[in-house]
Amino acid sequence: MSTTKHLIAPSVLAADFARLYDDVQMVNNSEADWFHIDIMDGVFVPNISFGFPVMQAIAKHAAKPLDVHLMIVDPDRYLNVCKESGASIITVHYEACTHLHRTLAAIKELGCRAGVALNPHTPVSLLRDVIQDIDLVCLMSVNPGFGGQKFIERTYAKIQELRVLAAGVNDSLLIEIDGGVTTANAAQLLNVGADVLVAGSFVFNAADPTSTIKTLKDINIT
Ligand code: DX5
Ligand code: ZN
């Protein structure tokens, strides 16, 4: 388990797109660590969110790193533009990469941190031969494509399995949890080994998003 303080990454997918500047400033002025940017293509997932022009507009005002979650087929085609659009972390889906090892190398070559996301049905054991090449694993705790879905309980066990898989091989690996994160599950997620909590609707639909971010940030690992 990581000994450093966990990170909070609000998902801009749940922001008010007509007031995006205000929501970017809210995150800037909060205790959040990263912006989580969900890019969907309508093919890998059954939804289309926004693309690189919108991400560039966010990057222009964002004072914190952009953690980009590519829910797209053939992500290799978009790594360059993703970096140029302001990404610090680029996460691709295991299920979308035929040559994952090569894709991870390409992300690092661009100077970004490399992440791999796993759908709920994908076992963490499939990362065994590439675990030392990954900076961040994003465990999907909902089926990707939409905000506001119910958290899948199996995620706790996957975090523990991933920690065991990475032990001694990649002890600085960041484990990120994406989907259905609220104060009802955040403490347990951190206690079993999560490092980064993504939260979309729980933050942006709250009456006070800034204090909701602070509540998530202030959770102490027991
Ligand atoms: C889902 C996205 C998530 C989403 C999380 O496909 O990857 O980042 O925005 O939203 P909530 O926190 O509402 O489940
Ligand atoms: Zn995401």
Automatic annotation (TrEMBL):
Cofactor(s) this protein requires: a divalent metal cation; Zn(2+); Co(2+); Fe(2+)
CDD domains: RPE
InterPro entries recorded: Aldolase_TIM, Ribul_P_3_epim, Ribul_P_3_epim-like, RibuloseP-bd_barrel
Enzyme Commission code(s) on record: 5.1.3.1
Pathway: Carbohydrate degradation
Binding site for substrate: S11, H69, G145, F146, G147, G148, D178, G179, G180, G200, S201
Top-level taxon of the source organism: Bacteria
Reactions this protein catalyses: D-ribulose 5-phosphate = D-xylulose 5-phosphate
GO molecular function: D-ribulose-phosphate 3-epimerase activity
Active-site feature positions: D38 (proton acceptor), D178 (proton donor)
Record keywords, A-Z: Carbohydrate metabolism, Isomerase, Metal-binding
Cofactor info, note text: Binds 1 divalent metal cation per subunit.
Binding site for a divalent metal cation: H36, D38, H69, D178
Pfam families on file: Ribul_P_3_epim
Homology family: Belongs to the ribulose-phosphate 3-epimerase family.
Function: Catalyzes the reversible epimerization of D-ribulose 5-phosphate to D-xylulose 5-phosphate.
Protein name: Ribulose-phosphate 3-epimerase
Organism: Sphingobacterium suaedae
Gene designation: rpe
